[in-house]
Amino acid sequence: MPKTAPVRPAGSAQLRRALGRVPPPWRLPLAVLAGTQAIWLCWWAAFYPGLLSFDSVMYTWQVTTGNWASDHSVLYDCFVWLVLHLPGKFALLTLAQTTAMSAVLGYACVALRGLGVRGRWSAAAALAVAALPPTGTFVVFVWKDVPFTISAVLVFAAGARLLARRYGASAAAVRGYRPGAPRFDLLMLTLGLLGVGLFRNANEGMVLIAGVALLLVLPGLRRTLAVLTAAAVLLPLAGQLWLYPAVGVKQPPADAVFALNYSDIAVAYDKAPGLFSAADQRLLTEVAPLSTWKAGANCYSGDALTNSSAPFDRAAADRLNGQLLALWTKLLKSSPDIVIGARICRAHIAWAPFSDPTQYGASTIISPLDRSPDLWGWTAPAATADLSAGHVAPNGKMLGSRYLPALRSHPLSSTLHKAGVWLQTASKVSQLDWLLWRGATWCYVAYAALALYAAGRRRRGVLALGGILLGLQLTLIAANPAELFRYNVVPLFVGPLCLGLIAARRAPRRAAAVRPSPVERQEQEQEPALG
Fold first, then answer.
1. Which of 194, 183, 176, 146 is nearest to 161 (CA)?
2. CA atoms of 479 and 256, how far apart (whole Å)
3. Model-level pTM?
């Protein structure tokens, strides 16, 4: 009998034809976007409408009661206010976060392809970060740290695109702001830098380091990058100092702004009490008993002093803030090793791959997936509220709020919910903490991958892509309250993407025949020794 060709499902043929109509340059980013979004939809359905923390409820209270304050991101508060007045509420916000991260990961994969990384490697890394519980659940939290992280990954991706163009990856320049055009990449870089500065306070240093690192290795764009970086640094500063107060947004209290300075004083008092005169000790006792300053001397956590159950008069700290800062300045001048050491210790999450369970406060702090029955005191009677939960004492302030239904959890799938909880619980095993939860580990992986690629391909300018991670680490060393996992999540996204650079550290032989364009040759001639 004559052989007959196997019959394939009509749907499969239609899918192949549909994929065939997608232009080849778009296949990788769309595949990454679709794949990662499908995974995040599972996390989203498992924890619908989104995961919450104490801060999430505080955002809700602030924007629904007119208590707007700039102690957190005002821009993110605006998003919270917007979705609370739309059908879907927090589900819309968390869904938008997953879509934005998926799109940025697709863009990053395209950028790395321009540097020689095969699409299958970068796509696998993107799918992995979407599937792993630490990063998978993180994106569906109602947190300002989520858009901050998305913005930082966008800075990395846009920087990689600009460097890939410089090294001859894009032979044909596309005008305008369409994807693939130099102006589009500059626009993405600008949005990323602004997001880093606007979604988390006091990150101007991180923006500056990331922008200057790229400026040094992109000689043809130095003036443009200088202007963009300056704008991304100055706009958040102007908002915090002038714009927000002008529209009625309250400035954070002094005890919130300078809590880390108070913690430095506590560490110094514990280590070297002889540095404190009788007048200094009287000043301390006006704010809290000396036993509280001793108990709050844990260098790993600033919360041990100002957010503990020990008595600490925040109103007195606000009134005496000038004198406390003068004392801190005196300690910095006389014993800088103690103050600087306290800052480095408190930034343990930024630079140490391993936590230290033997030391109080030195373990990685991971937010739970379940919600407190009284929403961390926000719906509790004032007499039973947990006053140590944050700088804003909840005292049942959300009790009876008409927005409480938006804060309730009702997963779309009980099966996905159980699976998500099980996976996240399993990932918290202490032996895997350094790999799954510590951003510092992936900072060093990214640095190593960038260095190997730069040496192998003789493209030292690629080292500038580490600027966003270095800026994050230095910013956390300068000011970090506690060992919270969410403060150093960016490397958990960027580090896995950088692994493909190790495999791409040797250029294929056929690439030697590709000659750079006249514009690229001119840029290479202008390249400084660093690049």
1. 183
2. 12
3. 0.91
